[in-house]
Amino acid sequence: MSTPTVGPPARAPLWRDRTFGTYWVAQSLSAAGDSFAYLAVPLLVLQATGSVAQMGLLTAVAGAASVAAGVFGGVLVDRYDRRTLMIVADLMRLVLYGLVPLVWLAGPQVWLLFVVLPICEAAGMVFQVAAVTAVRNLVDRDRITEANGRLQATYASAAVLGPLLAGVVAARFGPATAIAVNAASFALSAAGLWLIRLRPAPVDAAPVARERPLAEFLAGARFLWGQPVLRALTVLLSVFIFLTYGFVDVLIYHVTRDLGGSEGTVGTVLGLAALGTVAGALLVAPLRRRRGFGATWIGAHAVCGFAVAGVGIATSVPAVTALTAVYLCCLSIGGICSMSLRQEITPDHLLGRVTSAFWSTHYALGPAGAVVLTWAAARFGVAAVTLAAGTGCLLVAVAGLFSPVRRAGAEPAAAPPDVRVSSASGTVGG
Questions:
Q1: In 3-state terms, what secondary structure has residue 352?
Q2: Cα 35 from Cα 168, distance rounded (Å)
Q3: Can you tell me where the transmembrane regions are (predicted)?
Q4: Nearest Cα to 60, choosing from 420, 284, 406, 375?
Q5: Lowest-confidence range among 73-82, 177-186, 213-222, 280-289?
């Protein structure tokens, strides 16, 4: 009588993993809080100054700080404990954002935002790099994609409720109170991280060579620029982000000044439009399986261009909401595609540095773009600016057709000869 074959024991569903579940809940609450600042900070500036150009300048200063932090964020993440870095970043933002509503009790102090927001954005960049790399220390390698999908879908869902609630709070109690809610969310995130322990790096992982921080950052940059697809993505996204970095500021200005909406209206627009982000998170996997990386990424950014162009032309709040939802849906599809690609083809010991090199490089032009976009909106009107920006986004998608991005998924991505990549992660999935 033959002995029946016994398969490997069934694993519990990911949602029953206590460590991942705690991390998941804490970061979802933090993402909901972030959406309060996403809406409240521009409203606070617009309320105090009435200037869309001031909104763009603050966005630019904060973005520049984020880019600067990105240069060394990956080095810190690959060198030090990722959980500790995230907790420190949360506590810094708790204290700094908490100062804003306290100082605002004595009256508007716009200068404080130019101090607080850049520091918080720098801390946020370090946190984001650590959070992306921490997924590998939370779950087994074969569950990374599942974990990423759950996290991104939940973040997107939080982004729906966040602006809606932020709009209500800002309309009823003022934007400064909405920022206080955001500050409290970082306390919840830090508490959740304190309750978990990340897995240690694999024993066979390549150690991080202790060199000067700039030299370590350049190791990630060399890998990034040595991969044809990642190199092309970085160039194309640099242009795309230049064109769209100030989009939310222009959108808020359009809704409040051109369409006569209130703070609550803005919150409703951004909250309902964020359903597009949820849709993008759900659509990206089947789209990439059926169409491949190149077609999915290029198509998403082409549709983004049409949506951006349409927002400024739209003359009703429902039309603006629908077009913004389409934009956020396609932005989500393109972003998740890019993130998954980096995780698939980057060695673990370089992931933090490659992630920070990717972000800091393609966001480098964003601050300048925010200044130009908001200045032009005040000078020439929203319709002309969004039409120009949307046309530029379409040209980015067209350029992708003539780059290695178009073929990604149809053939393996070539790795630099001096970088060790395992066979399991050395190809670009379709």
A1: helix
A2: 13
A3: 21-45, 57-77, 84-104, 110-132, 153-173, 179-196, 232-253, 265-285, 292-313, 319-338, 350-376, 382-402
A4: 375
A5: 213-222
pLDDT above 70 covers a percentage of the chain that reads 83
Residues 140-152 have a mean pLDDT of 66
Sorted by sequence, the CB contacts under 8 Å of residue 418 that are 6+ apart come out as none
Q: Residue 306 class from Cβ within 10 Å (0-12 exposed, 13-18 middle, 19+ buried)?
A: middle
Residue type, 328: L
Instruction: Quote the longest CA-to-CA distance of the chain.
Output: 86
Q: Where are the beta strands (DSSP E) in 316-356?
A: none
Q: Nearest-CA neighbor of 228 among 8, 410, 13, 45? A: 410
Residue 9 tokens, joined:
């024991």
What local confidence, expressed as pLDDT, does residue 144 receive?
A: 64
Q: 14-198 belongs to which CATH class?
A: mainly alpha
What is the Cα 343 distance to its own chain's centre? 15
Q: What is the DSSP letter of 254?
A: I
* Residues 267, 164 contacting (CB under 8 angstroms): yes
- Alpha-carbon distance of 330 to 300, in angstroms, equals 5
Q: At what angle do helices 317-345 and 263-273 cross, to 10 degrees?
A: 50
Quick check: 33 and 181 in contact, CB under 8 A? yes
The Cα 344–Cα 21 span in angstroms is 23
Please tell me the pTM assigned to this model.
Answer: 0.69
The size of the chain, in residues, is 430
What is the token pair recorded at 391? 């046309």
Contact 208, 352 (CB under 8 A): no
Compute the distance between CA of residue 131 and CA of residue 137 in angstroms, rounded to an integer. 10
What distances in angstroms separate CA 323 from CA 171, 202, 276, 283, 311, one per listed residue? Answer: 24, 45, 9, 18, 6
CA 134 to mean position of chain CA atoms: 16
**Buried b / exposed e along 1-10 (16+ C-beta atoms within 10 A):** eeeeeeeeee
Distance of alpha carbon 95 from alpha carbon 119, whole angstroms: 11
State the burial class of residue 225 (Cβ atoms within 10 Å of its Cβ: 0-12, 13-18, 19+).
middle
pLDDT tier, 69 (very low <50, low <70, confident <90, very high otherwise): confident
Q: Is 408 helix (H, G, I), strand (E, B) or coil?
A: strand
- For the domain made up of 212-408, the CATH class stated in words is mainly alpha
| Angstrom distance (rounded) from CA 345 to CA 329 | 25
Confidence band for 426, pLDDT divided at 50, 70 and 90: very low
What six digits make up the tokens of 10? 């069934």
